[in-house]
Amino acid sequence: MKQTFIIDFDSTFTQVEALDELARISLRKHPDREAIYVQIEDLTNAAMEGKLSFRESLTKRVQLLEANRDHLKQLVSRLKKKVSSSFSRNKTFFEKHADDVLIVSGGFKEFITPVVLPYHIKKENIYANTFLFDEDGKIIGYDAENPLSNEGGKVKLLRSMNLDGDIYGIGDGHSDFQLKESGLIRKFFAYTENIERKAVAEKADHVTPSFDEFLYVNNLPRAISYPKNRILCLIIGNVPDEAIQVLKKDGFSIRHKTSFEEKYVADVGMLLLASDERVPDGQLARAVKLKTIGYLGNSRNRVSHELCTAMGIVLFDDPKSNPRNARFIPVRMAGFINKGDSYMSGNFPNLQLPKVDHAHRLIHIHQNVPGIMARINQIFAHHDINIVAQFLMTNPKIGYAITDVSAEYDKQVLKELKKIEHTIKFRVLY
Description:
This protein is α/β, with parallel strands linked by helices.
C-alpha cells in the first residue's frame, strides 16, 4: 500500500522555530528586543500547545517581526545549519521516497523551500504559508486565503488533497496531532528531538526522539541500523556536566546515577564512570549489551581490562588523568558507537575509520585465532556481496574486523556472521 509521510518543519525538520529566529535577526538593534523575543516565543508555544488559535498567534508574531527580504536571506543561511541531526544524516530516505514526503507547515515557503530542497524534497510537495511584502521588501502580512494560516489548517489542507494509502504524521505541535484527531492519518508520531510538548506527546501513537527512531519503527531506509535514543548510556558518579552533554547531544538515552544499579545491568549499552568508581566483575559479566566503557581517569584495578576484552567491550580511559578527559573520553565513546573507531582505546586494537557512503558497516569482534577473516569473506563470497572496504586490527587476544559492504544484501548473511566460531560480538553499525 502506498505510504505518505507528512512532516512538520519548525522544531521537527529544523531544531528551531523559524519565526523566533527571524525575530532575533530583524530585531537585533531594537531597544526592546529581549521583551519582544519572549512575547514571540510565548505566542509560538501557546499555538503549539493548543492554548491559542493558530491564526491569532501567527498574526501577532508577524506584526512583531519588522522583517524584510534581506532578513529572510540571513534566516535561510541560519536554518540550513540548524537542520535536526537525525534528519540531516538520513538523506537516503528522502531520496528514495521523494514522491512520498510532504512538508506541511504553518511556517512560510520563503524560508522552508531553500532549506528542504537539498534533501530531495520536491518543490510541489512543500505546503506552507506565504508572506506579503510592500514595494520595499518589508513583510506586511501573509496570504490569509491559505488554509495553513487558519486554525486546523493542516486538517483542511489534507482533506482537500484526498490522499490514498497509509498516511503518517510527524511533528511536535498541536496542529500535527489534529491530523490524527481528524482521522485523516493512520499514525501520529510526536517528534521530541528538539522540544517535547507533553500535551502533544501524551496523545501521540508513538513518541519519536529522533527521525532514526521513526524510520526504525517503520522499517524504512535509514543511515544507522539502530536508533541511538534506544542505546542506554549509564553515567555513574561525579561526572562533569560537560561530559554528560557530549553524549546527550549525540542522542543517547542518558541515566545519571550514583551507583551501577542492578536493574540497569542487563540493558546498559554504554557506561561512563567517574574516576573513583569501580565495576565488580560479576556485574560486568552480566552486562551482555555493553559495547563501550569510558573512565574519567586510570581504570586499572577498578574495571577489569581482561574481562572487557573477552566480552568485546571497548574501554577508553585516561591513565594520566589529563583534564581534557571530561570531553575527550565521551567523544571517543561516541566515535566507537557512531563509526566503529577504537582509536586510543585502552584494551582494543586501535582503528580510526573513514566514513563510507552508500554502504553498510559490519563490525565483527572475535578471538584472535587463525582463519577467521577467511571465514568472514567466504560468507560474503557465497552471497555475492561486494566489499567496498575492509579493515582488520588484532592484539594477542582479539581481532577487530570492519567490513563496508554494498547496500543490498541478504539478511541471512548477518545470521551466518554471528555464528562463526570464536565470534565475541557482531553488529551492523549503519
